[in-house]
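Holo prediction. Input below; ligand is 5-O-phosphono-beta-D-ribofuranosylamine.
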Amino acid sequence: LRVGVLASGRGSNLQSLLEQSLGGKIDAQVVLVASNKADAGALEKAREAGIPTRVIDHRGFASREDFDTAMVAALREAGVELVVLAGFMRLLSKVFLEAFPQRIMNIHPSLLPAFPGLNVQRQALEYGARFSGCTVHFVDGGLDTGPIIIQAVVPILEDDSEQSLAARILAEEHRIYPRAVQLFAEGRLRVEGRRVRIAPKAD
Ligand code: GRF
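Structure of the complex:
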């Protein structure tokens, strides 16, 4: 499976995906890492692994649609079959969604539908939740609203800070994102309305 990763930041989820992919643990090759930020750590991680990179700065485009058109062109050129958002801080327009229907995944550091949006580890703490976690989902037109593929749960501990909770969640992100990509690679994900059915493994 040819995977394109979009990232705006540090790139730890990209890193975990690259490790699984380059180690032959998943049937997916990252063929392109693209970012809207020239200084994203994710680009550095991609270069170290010898993966092609592209910087497409959204500020150079008049509209979201124009930016998305450029992103889609880069992904198509690379023959990308699945788009993996890993800390990509841009909302996708119809142009993007229609170019890759049910072929865009995102990871979010909360148990959706609780706490969509930003600073969600802090939100979970301040709310007083006892558990949080992370969610891999297909991307639709909303903010963190698409059909859920996998979730992982972590406890919120008495002495947690935003940082300690984020770290506990991140460890789970690194575990479940490659797993979701592998399920997709195996053709085992079927979207039925809001629900994603995971087919049993063929033998
Ligand atoms: C992760 O917490 C992810 O859930 C969120 O953005 C963060 C990206 O981290 N969407 P990294 O760039 O993969 O390290």
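The chain has one domain: 2-189. That is the main takeaway for now.
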